Amino acid sequence: MEIYEGKAKKVIPLDDGKVIMEFKDDATAFNGGKKAQFKGKGWLNAQISAKLFRLLEENGIKTHFIGIAGENKLIVEHLKMYPLEVVVRNVVAGSLKKRLPFNEGTQLKEPIVELYYKEDALSDPMINYYHARALGVSEAEIKEMENIALKVNEILKEYFEKKGIILVDFKLEFGKNANGEIVLADEISPDTCRFWDAETKESLDKDVFRFNKGDLISAYEELYNRLT
């Protein structure tokens, strides 16, 4: 029995406080308004997420990652998820262009952290601390998530720079484990991050599908090959 099925993943219960996170080959954009399937996408996202979770664990970030259960499946800790998405932006792109008077590709002087309410029916609106508290998330919890997100940003930015990749922005999700600890969850993949080639500025992420920039699998494979 599934605990949850989203646009890109299924979550399947195990015992001992673990679940399997199965990555699907489905791709969606514009809140599900654009859909397609790409053979091998689930495998790539699972493998890339596993690689990046291991990297973060090695650098002191507690994540829900436990191991790989199959080509497109990860074993992860079962968490009580927060209804928030924490977005970190290093470069102006996507929706940020609509909110700040900067051109796409402008390097920000410092990272911008944004909060979104994870709710498809409302198109995942951007919220602030007051909204988050109304949703039952304390200010201390929000600040801890933001601090973890900024540490993740420092680790990943340096890592990707060495691979000739710009970490433009990314989305993180968090949950609370049985011990009451806030833990990094969900995935870190080309579905949830913007990656640009450092020289060409070509997208190596879901924007390839979102804006018809080329072949999605080729972009994801290029990213995977650089990481491995």
Record keyword descriptors for this entry:
14 strands; 228 residues; 2 domains; Phosphorylase Kinase, domain 1; alpha+beta; seven-stranded antiparallel sheet; D-amino Acid Aminotransferase, Chain A, domain 1
Describe the structure.
The protein has 228 residues and is an alpha+beta fold. It has two domains: 74 residues, 2-Layer Sandwich (Phosphorylase Kinase, domain 1), CATH 3.30.200; 135 residues, D-amino Acid Aminotransferase, Chain A, domain 1 (2-Layer Sandwich), CATH 3.30.470. The protein has five helices and 14 strands. The strands form three sheets. Strands 8, 9, 10, 11, 12, 13 and 14 form a seven-stranded antiparallel beta sheet that branches. Strands 1-2-3-7-6 form a five-stranded antiparallel beta sheet, covered by helices on one side. Strands 4-5 form a two-stranded antiparallel sheet. Helix 1 runs parallel beside helix 5. The N and C termini lie far apart (34 Å).
